[in-house]
Amino acid sequence: MTVRLGVIGGDGIGPEVVAEARKVLDVVLPDVAATEYDLGAARYHRTGEVLPDEVLEQLAGEDVLLLGAVGDPSVPSGVLERGLLLKLRFAFDHYVNLRPSRLWAGTTSPLAGVAPGDIDLVVVREGTEGLYCGAGGSVRKGTPAEVATEESLNTRYGAERAVRDAFERAMRRPRRKVTLVHKNNVLVNAGDLWARTFAEVATEYPDVQTEYQHVDAAAMFLVTDPQRYDVIVTDNLFGDILTDLAAAVTGGIGLAASGNINPTRAYPSMFEPVHGSAPDIAGQGVADPAAAILSTALLLDHLDRPAEARRVEEAVGAEVAKRVPGEKLRTAEVGDAIATALAG
Amino acid sequence: MTVRLGVIGGDGIGPEVVAEARKVLDVVLPDVAATEYDLGAARYHRTGEVLPDEVLEQLAGEDVLLLGAVGDPSVPSGVLERGLLLKLRFAFDHYVNLRPSRLWAGTTSPLAGVAPGDIDLVVVREGTEGLYCGAGGSVRKGTPAEVATEESLNTRYGAERAVRDAFERAMRRPRRKVTLVHKNNVLVNAGDLWARTFAEVATEYPDVQTEYQHVDAAAMFLVTDPQRYDVIVTDNLFGDILTDLAAAVTGGIGLAASGNINPTRAYPSMFEPVHGSAPDIAGQGVADPAAAILSTALLLDHLDRPAEARRVEEAVGAEVAKRVPGEKLRTAEVGDAIATALAG
Ligand SMILES: CC(C)[C@H](C(=O)O)[C@@H](O)C(=O)O
Ligand SMILES: CC(C)[C@H](C(=O)O)[C@@H](O)C(=O)O
After folding, report:
1. Distance between CA A178 and CA A183 in Å, rounded?
2. Most A-contacting residue of B147, B198, B222 (CB-CB within 10 A), to test interface
3. For the CA atoms of B224, B225, B226, B230, what is the dihedral angle to 10 degrees?
4. pLDDT tens-digit map of B125-146
5. What is the pTM of this model?
6. B interface mutation test: which of A101, A150, A153, A180 has the most B CBs within 10 A?
7. Are A97 and A235 in contact (CB under 8 A)?
8. Which CATH superfamily is domain B120-249 in?
9. Residue range(s) of every CATH 3.40.50 domain in chain A
């Protein structure tokens, strides 16, 4: 069956790394009908539009989406992020923002005394609620009396489906442990909602070990004892911070993949590297495409092709393990090497 | 002139570490009239009260406050934290939550390749706004239709005084650099307020180098490149997370001091270790009092006694440098050693 793939290269290094991800997909998933979408800063400057309704509708008809990166210094902060990236996450109800972190062989953690294999965690970041809703406003902007608000919206419906997904994932992993991260000593309304939901769902999974941590403590433990984590479930903003931190302790954002997943399949899920558009190195062919390629492994998992997903991960792992520290990589060479290894 | 010192031992290890901090203060600040306040879980269980108005009024009459820790598993999460700790921070308008992080000789960072002296940063965490205001609520609690909100309130007034304090501090430090941390690509209202305020205040300090980072990027850089930071200014919640993280990369929460400061002196400022009440080790005399003692150095700075403040820091530094890795410390012995060194 042909897989309809929507490709959004986006800004900066986005198109470069997505090109390599597609080389890899071409090998392991030959029957693909890909459509490239011209979205991002260039389109915004040309047309003033970020994501027209017709394009959103067309994207909704794809099976899966692959996204490079969004954001450019020439566009005011937030315009593309909210108008394109977050718009897609919300419109397509991507309630599981899945972000695995693993210390790969060949990479060095900035932490002393951790070895490849020591860290293997996955964050289920809720993707459709919290402070990302865009609820908030300003009065008396630009005056000394300015007030600005941001509102975090949280529902039992939203927390429960994310929590349940985390428990389901934990059941499929050897350690079977889920850590809820929130800040329920300060954010008592949302924190209590998450904690009660977590406790109730946990009763359905007696084989899963559970713990709760405040977000400040979790940030600390990700540095002092990242080995303790298996599955972390948390809200949208805490997940944003903790997944960058988890990427940092596992050797950097260059290997951090993510999936914006709608497990019900009512809408296409979207896969993207965690890194941004990195305008400073864009166009030079030196961006690491590993995170984009690893994101295709998550895409393959979502398409129920775990064998292909594991093959992609292994090929990336083998390529990374061969890297010579300090040697500059070339985006296309990395993609070619991985695609060739998979084809061979 | 006699300094009126209000002492709130609080919960768990709080009273133990505060006792050692007082030993040190007795040496370097002899003319103190100290009043102990019985606040925390024990009082709550005995009387049902967290912080009665009369006590708050009495505390307002002190010059400075020393606090141990607040929070106990026997009290629902948030009750003491919000009713006592945050209540004091807000009632006494502690808008500068000052949290220095330094890698001391004798401590080991969990990061590879950083040496004592490499990391020396201070976070100015805004202390009276943001998501800590207690604005928010729930509807249909306990039902599948539950909705919970948390609101972040931000004002030009509040952001500006925190930002200004950060620039003033930077001017007194050799590197003169301030990093604003926010998430202005998502929290566009509050983020824009902070960014505009920061840019405007910066024009008054042409000698100070500035940069902006999203909170997720800052979390990453605190692990991969903590040396880059001098002064960080950020909002209440981001400051909470980043200061625990900064403590972790500089050898742990055992040395993290903080001041809840009202620079106008309209109300007493309050000094406390960043660590919590650690109920698991309470009463055993094994808690590290270093963070509480270092908090008295911040207290001395606030009382315009920088010479005494530096002496306390040096004495703590010398004691820490002498520690034998793996050897269990005794709370009272650490306090005695530091107090004796200072008296000698
Ligand atoms: C670009 C930004 C809106 C986004 C987020 O905050 O979710 C990014 O940081 C991420 O983690 O995917
Ligand atoms: C106990 C809690 C309310 C507090 C906070 O979140 O500010 C603590 O984590 C801190 O950093 O002082």
Report:
1. 16
2. B147
3. -150
4. 999 999 999 999 999 999 999 9
5. 0.97
6. A150
7. no
8. Isopropylmalate Dehydrogenase (3.40.718.10)
9. 128-249
